[in-house]
Amino acid sequence: MSPEEREKLQAHLRTRFGAKTLTVRARGRKTDSAEVYVGEEFAGVISKDEDDGELAYHFTMTILDIDLDDAG
């Protein structure tokens, strides 16, 4: 993903989730996805999907059951 794409996605996700410390970071050699962090904690991956001239982004976040114990 280009730096411009990551910046747009970051701005959108910060607004959507109300998370000022959310960042969208490059994934080294991967050009079709980026990593999402809240502060310094990894939150998930955004994948770019181009099909038949349409562009979409998919955000995948894994939540472990042990993380739910800390939520309450």
Secondary structure elements and pairings:
Elements: H1 3-17, E1 22-27, E2 30-38, E3 41-51, E4 54-60, H2 65-69
Antiparallel strand pairs: 1-2, 2-3, 3-4
Describe this structure as you would to a colleague:
- There is one protein chain.
- The longest helix has 15 residues, at 3-17.
- This protein has helices at residues 3-17, 65-69, and strands spanning 22-27, 30-38, 41-51, 54-60.
- Strands 1-2-3-4 form a 4-stranded antiparallel sheet.
- It has 72 residues and is of the alpha+beta class.
- It has one domain.
- The N and C termini lie far apart (36 Å).
Structural class: alpha+beta
The N- to C-terminal Cα distance equals: 36 Å
Low-confidence stretches: none
Note the beta-strand portion: over 45%
Number of domains: 1
Strand order of the largest sheet: 1-2-3-4
Oligomerization state: single chain
Number of strands: 4
What's the tally of helices? 2
* H and E order: HEEEEH
Q: What is the radius of gyration computed over CA atoms, rounded to a whole number of angstroms?
A: 13 Å
Q: What is the mean predicted local confidence, pLDDT?
A: 93
Major β-sheet profile: 4 strands, antiparallel
Helical fraction: 25-40%
Shape: globular
What is this structure, in a nutshell?
With 72 residues, the protein is an alpha+beta fold. The protein is built from two helices and four strands, in the order H-E-E-E-E-H.
Structural key phrases:
single chain; 72 residues; alpha+beta; four-stranded antiparallel beta sheet; 2 helices; 4 strands; 46% strand; globular
